Amino acid sequence: MSPSTSIHGMWSTRLAFILAASGSAVGLGNVWRFPYTAGEYGGGAFVLVYLLCVACIGIPIMMAEVMIGRRGRQSPINTMRTLASQEGKTPAWSLLGWMGILCAFLILSFYSVIAGWTLAYMVRAGAGVFTGIDAAASDALFNAFVGNAEALLAWHTIFMVLTVLVVARGVASGLEQAVRWMMPALFVLLLVMVAYAALNGDLGGALRYLFQPDFAELGDKAGAAILSAMGQAFFSLSLGMGAIMIYGSYLKSDASIAQNTIIIAAMDTLVALLAGLAIFPIVFAHGLEPAAGPGLVFKTLPIAFGEMPGGSFFGALFFLLLVFAAWTSSISLLEPIVAYLVENRGFSRVRASVLSGTGAWLLGIACLLSLNAWSEYTLLGKGVLDLFDFLTANILLPLGGILIAVFAGWVLPRRASVDELGMGEGLGYRLWRLLVRYVAPLAVAVVLLNALGVLPAIGQV
Ligand code: PFF
């Protein structure tokens, strides 16, 4: 029953979807957010919970999101409304799409600020600023940088313009070209970094830190750690807000959703682990603090670039590729908003992109000011940037994930998911249905309720 094409265009090949969806998944979440969040929660236990979340919650929900998108072939708001009414259910399901749009604005606003850091660090690396730098100097450099609101604003603006430019051109033509070579290149360079860190840093220490879980060490932070690991899985896989749904809506009807999803999730996880393996050996060799927070990557890698031969070149290249990774993610954040404005308000793509990009840019200014001029304004102990990050990754995306799982597992009839997933009704399908109907929604709900303090058991945020 699902329409065979989307009015916004379609991926030209099956590979294009994998590239675009992994372009959305792989980004700052892997290289910037994963290592510092793991560092904040002591490493191994966090990583283990993260991997479990990807396998048991992330993959089934990603399959559900792609499936819903492909069946609806419209913006998430309209897709949810149409599919729900086809099943005689309330159009209020479109609220999931609205929540996704709110999330997209909030995430894009701070995402663009951090991507701006990456741009700035690319230029600095290329200019040789990191040559011979030690841990203290790198720390000071970073702190001075985030204290400079004008510089942050300039880089944030450049990045947002880049995002709007691609989205305005249309995702298929603008994005397909970029991801095709960027993803493999980033991967290779990460391997180079891991090799360098292994030879020159404390690889043993990093491996123990990341892969030897010590739950006892978490103590009363266990609830917060589990929430953050789950939130990180949603954030990193781009789940719970309609980005993967809209990409699914451009996917041809005969492509295998399960296979594509597993490839995407595996690549995303691999990149995050490689980033950890590039960073932590240097952290330990230089006596840096794993719990240094959002600055971790920006304080650590310059030290390595500063001492390796050809470091200016490699450093500039690394940050350039990270900019591309962030770019292909930010595009997927803007796309659901733009699709909605085009479908329901009759906007041209260009107008819709400029307007929504401007909105996120304005919000981004609040985020970057929270690092300097507005640093004393906090809510729940967090500035605007931290608050947006926490609220989206740890609360709204998981909430969206529950709704997607419930919709796919309980609202859509079994027949529809069998048809759409096209994997028969064997063990694979039954496992997916079990995870999406029971395991994923219950697990996410328990973690969220615990974090809100509703369950007394595991210690709170
Ligand atoms: N997955 C992206 C990353 O790891 O950097 C961030 C992201 C993109 C989150 C798109 C959510 C989203 F919808």
The total beta strand count reads 0
How does the overall form come out from the CA principal axes? globular
Q: Give Rg in angstroms.
A: 21 Å
Order of helices and strands: HHHHHHHHHHHHHHHHHHH
Strand content: under 5%
Distance between the termini: 45 Å
Quaternary state reads: single chain
Characterize the structure shown:
The protein has about 450 residues and is mainly alpha-helical. About 75% of the residues lie in helices and about 0% in strands. The chain is built from 19 helices and no strands. Helix 1 (about 15-25) packs across helix 8. The chain is globular. The N and C termini lie far apart (about 45 Å). The protein binds 4-fluoro-L-phenylalanine. 4-fluoro-L-phenylalanine binds near residues 27 and 329.
Would you kindly provide a brief summary of this structure?
This protein is mainly α and 461 residues long.
Break the fold down into its secondary structure elements and pairings.
Elements: H1 14-25, H2 28-40, H3 44-72, H4 76-86, H5 94-126, H6 135-146, H7 149-169, H8 171-200, H9 203-211, H10 215-218, H11 222-236, H12 243-248, H13 257-285, H14 296-307, H15 311-345, H16 349-369, H17 384-411, H18 414-421, H19 427-451
Helix pairs in contact: 1-8, 1-13, 1-15, 2-11, 2-13, 3-4, 3-9, 3-11, 3-13, 3-17, 3-19, 4-5, 5-7, 5-14, 5-15, 5-16, 5-17, 6-14, 7-8, 7-15, 7-16, 8-13, 8-15, 9-13, 11-17, 11-19, 13-14, 14-15, 15-16, 16-17, 17-19
4-fluoro-L-phenylalanine binds at residues 24-25, 27-30, 107, 235-236, 238, 241, 243, 329, 332-333.
